[in-house]
Amino acid sequence: MNDYNASARPGSTRPGSRWAPPIRNPEQVEPWDQISDEHRNEINDCTTNQTNTFPPNQFHLFDMNKDDQLDFSEFRYALQALGFSNLSRADLIASFKSLARPRPGWTPLPTLPNQPPPQPTPSVVDLRLSREGFQAIAARYVAARDPREELLKTFALFDRGGKGVITVDDLRGVVKELGEDVPDPELHGMVEQFDVEGKGGVSREEFLGIFLDR
How far, CA to CA in Å, does 212 sit from each of 6, 40, 78, 113, 147? Predict the structure, then answer.
């Protein structure tokens, strides 16, 4: 049975940083409690029925027949929307089957003469995953994800030309695209603060340290 209490999740007191600090004994803590509030909100945005918002939330986008359950294909696409596009099919099937239940009204196929006996248990196509089940599985994947991957993707957005460092010119370009007005002395100060080696830019390692060494 599913031990995840969805109603209790929004009230969690875990830190609000996108990259929550490591759990001391992760094997004793549910995945939902290992992820940051921001990641919880990201998953909840996939599963909460917000009919007065646009665009519609992702769970209902993928719940094609609006039965508040996901079949395997819907489950796979919903995870892709959360950034999990490189999971193997075998991994996805195992995760889906771990919390999915038979669709309403499912019964084994009838036995026919000269035909192999039907499966006594439902196959993947006959299973459905609840909203709470999707939250639990998504949290499990988020908890297992290396936070450095997301940070390095962000680093690449700043590092124009793939130089391996973020320079003042890079920051100036980003600030301009965002329509912000940040004086050059402040931009230089940002780089100098974290450019430990004085090489004129913030390296990948220094960039990771800004977020992970808190």
Answer: 28, 19, 28, 64, 9
